[in-house]
Design brief:
- This protein folds into 2 domains: 40 residues, no CATH class; 308 residues, 3-Layer(aba) Sandwich (Beta-lactamase).
- 38% of the residues lie in helices and 18% in strands.
- A hairpin with a 5-residue loop joins strand 13 and strand 14.
Amino acid sequence: MVLTRFSVLERALTLGGLAPLALIGAAPQHQGGRITELLPPGYVQPKQQPREVVVPAPTPLVVDIDRLVTDFGGKVGVAVKSIDTGWMVAKNGDVPMPQQSVSKLWVTLTLLDQVDQGRIRLDDPITVTKNDLTLFHQPIASLLKNGVYNTTVRDLVRRAMTMSDNTANDRLLRHVGGPSAVNAYIKRHSLGAIKFGPGERLLQSRTAGLPWRQDYAMGRAFYAARAKLPSNVRQAAFNRYVADPIDGAAAGSIANALAKLQRGELLSPASTQWLIATMESSRTGHARFRASVPPGWKLGHKTGTGQDLMGRTAGFNDVGILTAPDGRSYAVAVMIGDTSRPVRERQKLMQNVVARVVTYHDSEKPQPVLAD
């Protein structure tokens, strides 16, 4: 085959640039250090983009996080990401863990994305009925009068994110289009190893080894039905869930997603500000991250806690954005997927992770993100 000089150029560019020309038999002519013979008239060399500086993770923090997780034992993933400089410290940060109520964050992000598109308004009216009730933590159930509670989308988001109300979240989930809409949002924004499960009722009934029935949402009917199950049935269902959680998410992916949120890459500026402020007003998890947040610092976070079985918990989590008084911020995720350590020790692990981040921050100076 005979190649003209422009067909040679076309093949070279297809292979990824001008460098491969020598590999296919062309002999480019150089003048003043530039290739001139093979370039078409008027060709302009693309401007080189600034190079992102890869800031290494701070060694003391790497050592501390590794030691904390190793000494704790069990199935645990921890990730800390500097939102300003981009480094990440992670231990088991790529292992999917049960999210439980951490997954409420993805429902809210999906909803606020639809707000940004003009499809939903936060002040839209919305109705909750007794057929919407789920199980476990659902304080909204006490507000139903004659089986109905009329409210707004804004109110349900606030209840889901600050009180971790399961019924409020499931009602919002249906409002945005169900689990498929949430998983589509996660995929569209390339959030990584994060899955949204089937919603609270199916998630919890499967974890227990029960088929869901709506009457389980009333009173303590679910607890009674679960207590009647043979122990081997319940244990098998529990083990299946923690081994391969249908709502699994990796701590590193969650930290990256929180960093994107803080940088304004997931929502409009107004929605971003509103969501972070809502997370900062959360009432849950006072003995988790929040217990180690010093005066002057801010924490916007979401907790998650699963079912207990024989001293184990199917997900004991806290994830959030930690902001220092000087404005620098960190995305932090601690996901305890399965452990027999007492609850107080799990809380202490979370407190220690935040304390180590604060100690590192107070000892370091800001680093540049980009350089020419």
